[in-house]
Specification:
The structure holds two protein chains of two kinds.
Chain A lengths: L1 E8 L3 H12 L5 E4 L15 E3 L1 H4 L3 E2 H14 L4 E2 L2 E9 L2 E8 L3 E12 L3 E3 L15 E3 H11 L6 E5 L3 H12 L3 E7 L8 H8 L6 E3 L1 E7 L6 E6 L12 E4 L2 E4 L3 E3 L2 H6 L23 E3 L10 H21 L8 E7 L1 E5 L2 E2 L7 E8 L3 E10 L2 E11 L5 E6 L10 E6 L5
Parallel strand pairs in A: 1-2, 1-8, 2-5, 8-19, 10-17, 11-12, 11-17, 12-13, 20-27
Antiparallel strand pairs in A: 3-4, 6-7, 7-8, 9-18, 14-15, 15-16, 20-22, 21-23, 23-26, 24-25, 24-27
Helix pairs in contact in A: 1-3, 1-8, 4-5, 5-6
Chain B lengths: L1 E5 L8 E6 L5 E5 L4 H12 L2 E2 L2 E7 L5 E6 L3 E2 L3 H10 L1 E3 L7 E3 L9 E3 L5
Parallel strand pairs in B: 5-8
Antiparallel strand pairs in B: 1-2, 2-3, 4-7, 5-6, 6-10, 9-10
Classes of the chains: A alpha/beta, B alpha+beta.
Chain lengths: 424, 119
Amino acid sequence: MEKHDLIIIGGGPAGLAAAIAARESGVEDVLILEREKELGGILNQCIHNGFGLHTFKEELTGPEYAARYMEKAKEMGIPYRLSTTVVDLQRQGDRVAVTSVSRQDGLVQTEAKAAVLCMGCRERPRGALNIPGTRPAGIFSAGTAQRLVNMEGYLPGRRVVILGSGDIGLIMARRMTLEGAKVLCVAELMPYSGGLKRNIVQCLDDYGIPLKLSHTVVDIEGKERVTAVTIAQVDEKLKPIPGTEERFDCDTLLLSVGLIPENELSKAVGVELSPVTSGPIVNEQLETSIPGVFACGNVLHVHDLVDYVSEEAEQAGHSAARFVKEGRSEGLREIPLKTAGAVRYTVPASISPERMGKEAVVRFRVGRNMRKATVRVLADGKEVYKRPRPVMAPGEMEQVKLQKEWLSGGCREVTVEAADGQEG
Amino acid sequence: MVKELTCISCPLGCPLKVELNEQGAVVSVTGNTCKRGEEYGKKEVTAPTRTVTSTIRVEGAKAPVTSVRTKTDIPKEKIFACMEEIRKAVIKAPVHIGDVVIKNVAGTGVDVTATKAAE
């Protein structure tokens, strides 16, 4: 059986940054397995700009951002296999067994001391939405349309309705308009958009595309191809209000209704998943419940900015390298990170005060729009950190840097809280 | 005349009202909660600019298209003229990141460059 020190599953932004960091931490034998025929992952189809402001202090497009990491990996001579899909992952003794398939090599079994999960996420499909109507051609997820336009060179439709105001949907509203399609409207079920303000202004307002909040699709018509879509307003319980229907003649419906971490392999190896993020539950090393299996990027929790993916992946790469060289430090106390107020989850979900460095980054999201909010960290109920946040939104990832010194003296649990000014 | 817009300088997204006089000069910006909002409001009504990103057809490469951008922002009203030129163009592989594929697009003085290699 083929043997390696570290296998990175996925060659997108997370996989590339994790591999580079592992090399820098002194693990030579790193191998990246990538399903697509090129590295770079989803960034290859994200041709718009706005990437890398934090990392490179300039606004790059997705392919440019990916290229920076691909060049670095190439310079370091990190080996990778393309068009190679990992189909199974198992823990065998103190090793991880990776089964992959590719046209050139067939079925390959590989053994590694550790693995980093970097599989990214998927779009929520139509089947998850219960939209009534026929099932004609012309219904695409926004990301599929993005790939068709930006990589395959096809325009998938001429008259378009978009359901969901996630960032990919907003970006595609502009993209299809620029390519000559007519985008009739963007319907959003919630009373607010999950997309960034900047995208609403620059992708919809710039082109006079209406954003219909508290609206959803109630009918799809068409036998072979979509011929019309009907939307209607919804009430507070998100139920369509009769009499508010509006019918659009169109040939295409795009869905931009959320992203879900892609964890089939994580489930295969038995990694414990969070019901909130749908990603692995990890400690401050970004190690999952299975020893030697680490996770980072959108497979762990869906990120808003790729810069944070790279940062997180770098940390996972360093941790995995440490595991390869030193094994797991056994018998260390891990304390839980709890959530309070509007905080929906934290990554990591637990932390070891002994093992952690001087500080550990804790990433989280809130469940609702808030103004004059306050983020607090409590150690055993005692406030150790407090920061005012003028505005917080579900669409934006937040972070606090947990200091080792806050956890001294046998601390048993840490709470991350976000509260409205009004709530005190 | 008063123009209404949403500030994009930060996630607050303040609703701005920008008042213009008959000459089109900015008289006042209201609705903003910080200095950045005022600056955004002024620029957005007097000289709005955008970076345009798109794809361009490429011959002799594995992929049928490759991605491009305007090197810097161009005036907002030139977006469709810029797209028209990009849509008509066909370039030949190999292409490297940063290669100029259209010079002085739509008379803006700004070049269109490749953002992805094609070979």
